[in-house]
C-alpha cells in the first residue's frame, strides 16, 4: 500500500485524511492498517513519531462508522489506554480530528483535573474513551463507567505502562472487558514482561515491527561531554547562549532536578518551563502550549512527563542527567528525529554516569562524538561505577569494600545483643570486652544473687 487511497477505508475517512494533507502512509501504517481493518488483533513494535496513532485510529473509526450501534449509558465502544495525561490528550485530539463531522464522540479521562465533568460526559455514553489506567479505575469504582460493551481496545506505549507501575491496574482492567473484542497493542520495546502482558490482551495477533531503535539513533547527531556534576548547569547555560536553539528539550532524572534547572536558567534571563508529575494539569498544559507557540524555547522535563509531547521542530535534546535505563535514551533523542527528521542530542555525562553511556552505546550501536570541555572548566574526576538504582551513592572505580573497626557478627546492630551496643541500661548493657554474653545473663545473675540472700 503506497497511498492512503489504497486502503479500504470509508469514503468520509479518506476525505479527512486527504484534507489533512496526508497521501503516503508511514511504514507502521502500511503494515498495521490492513489487518486492523479485517478485525485482527495487532502487536506492534514502533517508536514514537512513527505514525502509530493513525495506524490504530483510522481502522477503528472505520469500524465504528460501519457498525452504527450507539453507546449506552456509562459505556464506551472503544477504549484507548495511555500511560500519561499528555499522551492521552494528544491521542484524543488526533482521533477527534480524524472523525470530525462523522457523528462520533471522542473524550479523554485522566488525573490532575476534576473528575465530575468526566463523569457527566460518560453518563450519556461515548464512542471513544482515551484514558490513563488510574483515572479509568476511579470512574469504574464510582460506577460511572462499564467496560462490558467495549468493541476495540488499544494499549499504547505498553513499555511505559510497566515502567510507571501500571501492571496491577492493567490486570484489574482485563477481566472487565468482553472476551470478544479487537485488541491493538503497541510498544517501543518488547522485553519478556511486555510479551507476557501482550499474551493476556491479544488473541492470535498479527505482529508488525518498524523503526528499530538503532534507526532513531542513527538519524540524530549525538554528542557527549564528560563533566563534573556541579558544572553541568553552567555548561548548559553556555550552550544555550552559543547555540540559541529554536526548540530545545532538556531531560532530567528527577522532578526536583527539573525545577532546579529552570530556576537557574531563569536566574540568568533564559526563559524556560518545567513539566513533570508534581505540576498540576493546567500548569503542564500551559508550559507545553507556550513551548509549542514559541513563547519559550526551553522545556525541561522528566522521562515520564515527556511521553506524549508531540511538538514539531525540536532541534536539540539535552540529556542533563543520563537515564539509567538505556531504552529511555532512545525515547529522549527520538523527540528531535520525528517522522524521519534529523536532530542534535547532547549528553552531559558525570563520572558516575559513564556506565549508563556504555549501556546506551551497546543498545544503539552508535558511539556519540566526544566534545571537549571549554576553557575554564575542571576536568571530571576519575570514573566511578554508576549505581544501578538512581540516587544511590556511587563507589569509586575499582574500590574494594572495607570495614571500619573490628569485625561484627550478624547481631552487631541490635542493642543489648551479643556483639552489639548496650541497651537502655538493661541486662547485658555492661558486657565486658572478653567476648559476647547471652542477652539474658545479667537478669539470671541478679536472680541468683537474690536467691542466695534469701537462703542466708
How does the SSE layout of this entry go?
Blueprint: H1 11-19, H2 27-37, E1 42-45, H3 52-66, E2 76-81, H4 85-98, E3 106-109, H5 115-123, E4 126-131, H6 133-141, E5 152-155, H7 158-163, H8 167-173, E6 182-187, H9 192-201, E7 206-209, H10 213-219, E8 220-226, H11 232-243, E9 248-251, H12 255-267, E10 272-275, H13 281-293, E11 298-301, H14 303-306, E12 316-319, H15 326-333, E13 343-349, H16 354-364, E14 369-370, E15 384-385, E16 395-396, H17 441-455
Parallel strand pairs: 1-6, 1-7, 2-4, 2-5, 3-4, 5-6, 8-13, 8-14, 9-11, 9-12, 10-11, 12-13
Antiparallel strand pairs: 15-16
Average residue-wise pLDDT: 82
Strand content: 15-25%
Unreliable spans are: 385-408, 410-437
Helix/sheet category? alpha/beta
CATH architecture of the largest domain: 3-Layer(aba) Sandwich
SS elements, strand count? 16
The Rg value, from CA coordinates, equals 29 Å
Q: What is the number of helices?
A: 17
* Strands side by side in the biggest sheet: 3-4-2-5-6-1-7
The name CATH uses for the topology of the largest domain is Rossmann fold
Describe this structure in words.
This protein is α/β, with parallel strands linked by helices. It has helices spanning 11-19, 27-37, 52-66, 85-98, 115-123, 133-141, 158-163, 167-173, 192-201, 213-219, 232-243, 255-267, 281-293, 303-306, 326-333, 354-364, 441-455, and strands at 42-45, 76-81, 106-109, 126-131, 152-155, 182-187, 206-209, 220-226, 248-251, 272-275, 298-301, 316-319, 343-349, 369-370, 384-385, 395-396. It folds into 2 domains: 4-211, 3-Layer(aba) Sandwich (Rossmann fold); 214-396, Rossmann fold, CATH 3.40.50. The chain has a 7-stranded parallel sheet, with helices on both faces. The protein has a 7-stranded parallel sheet with strand order 10-11-9-12-13-8-14, sandwiched between helices. The protein has a two-stranded antiparallel sheet with strand order 15-16. 38% of the residues lie in helices and 15% in strands. The N and C termini lie far apart (107 Å). Residues 385-408 and 410-437 have low confidence and may be disordered. Helix 13 links the parallel strand 10 (272-275) and strand 11. Residues 381-456 are annotated as: Disordered. Residues 408-417, 445-456 have a biased composition (Basic residues). It holds the Pfam family Helicase_C.
Amino acid at each position: 500500500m503506497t497511498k492512503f487511497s489504497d486502503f479500504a477505508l470509508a469514503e468520509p475517512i479518506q476525505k479527512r485524511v486527504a484534507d489533512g494533507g496526508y497521501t503516503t502512509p508511514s511504514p507502521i501504517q502500511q503494515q498495521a492498517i490492513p489487518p486492523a481493518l479485517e478485525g485482527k488483533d495487532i502487536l506492534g513494535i514502533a517508536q514514537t513519531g512513527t505514525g502509530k496513532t493513525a495506524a490504530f485510529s483510522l481502522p477503528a473509526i472505520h469500524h465504528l462508522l460501519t457498525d452504527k450501534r450507539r453507546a449506552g449509558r456509562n459505556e464506551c465502544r472503544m477504549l484507548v489506554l495511555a500511560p500519561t495525561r499528555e499522551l492521552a490528550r494528544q491521542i484524543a485530539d488526533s482521533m477527534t480530528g480524524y472523525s470530525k463531522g462523522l457523528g462520533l464522540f471522542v473524550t479523554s479521562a485522566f488525573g490532575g483535573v476534576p473528575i465530575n465533568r468526566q463523569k457527566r460526559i460518560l453518563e450519556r455514553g461515548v464512542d471513544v474513551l482515551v484514558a490513563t489506567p488510574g483515572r479509568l479505575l476511579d470512574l469504574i469504582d464510582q460506577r460511572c463507567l462499564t467496560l462490558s460493551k467495549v468493541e476495540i481496545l488499544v494499549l499504547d506505549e505498553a513499555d511505559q505502562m510497566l515502567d510507571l507501575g501500571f501492571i496491577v491496574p492493567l490486570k484489574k482492567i482485563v477481566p472487565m472487558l468482553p472476551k470478544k473484542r479487537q485488541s491493538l497493542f503497541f510498544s517501543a520495546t518488547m522485553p519478556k514482561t511486555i510479551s507476557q502482558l501482550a499474551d493476556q490482551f491479544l488473541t492470535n495477533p498479527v505482529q508488525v515491527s518498524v523503526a528499530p531503535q538503532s534507526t532513531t539513533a542513527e538519524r540524530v547527531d549525538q554528542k557527549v561531554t564528560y563533566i563534573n556534576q556541579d558544572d553541568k548547569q553552567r555548561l548548559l547555560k553556555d550552550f544555550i547562549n552559543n547555540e540559541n536553539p529554536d526548540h530545545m528539550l532538556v531531560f532530567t532524572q528527577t522532578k526536583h532536578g527539573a525545577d532546579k534547572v529552570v530556576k537557574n536558567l531563569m536566574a540568568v534571563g533564559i526563559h524556560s518551563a518545567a513539566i513533570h508529575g508534581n505540576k498540576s494539569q493546567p500548569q503542564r498544559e500551559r508550559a507545553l502550549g507556550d513551548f509549542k507557540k514559541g513563547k519559550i524555547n526551553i522545556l525541561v522535563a522528566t522521562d515520564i512527563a515527556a511521553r506524549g509531547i508531540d511538538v514539531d521542530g525540536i532541534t536539540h535534546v539535552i540529556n542533563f542527567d543520563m537515564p539509567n535505563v538505556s531504552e529511555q535514551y532512545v525515547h529522549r533523542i527520538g523527540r528531535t528525529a520525528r517522522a524521519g527528521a534529523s536532530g542534535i542530542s547532547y549528553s552531559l555525562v558525570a563520572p558516575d554516569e559513564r556506565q549508563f553511556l556504555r549501556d546506551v552505546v551497546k543498545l544503539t550501536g552508535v558511539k556519540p562524538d566526544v566534545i571537549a570541555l571549554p576553557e575554564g572548566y575542571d576536568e571530571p574526576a576519575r570514573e566511578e561505577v554508576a549505581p544501578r538504582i538512581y540516587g544511590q551513592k556511587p563507589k569509586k572505580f575499582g574500590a574494594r569494600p572495607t570495614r571500619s573497626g573490628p569485625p561484627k557478627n550478624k547481631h552487631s546492630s541490635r542493642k543489648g545483643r551479643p556483639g552489639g551496643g548496650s541497651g537502655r541500661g538493661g541486662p547485658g548493657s555492661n558486657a565486658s570486652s572478653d567476648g559476647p554474653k547471652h542477652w539474658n545473663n545479667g537478669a539470671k545473675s541478679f536472680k541468683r544473687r537474690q536467691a542466695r540472700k534469701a537462703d542466708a
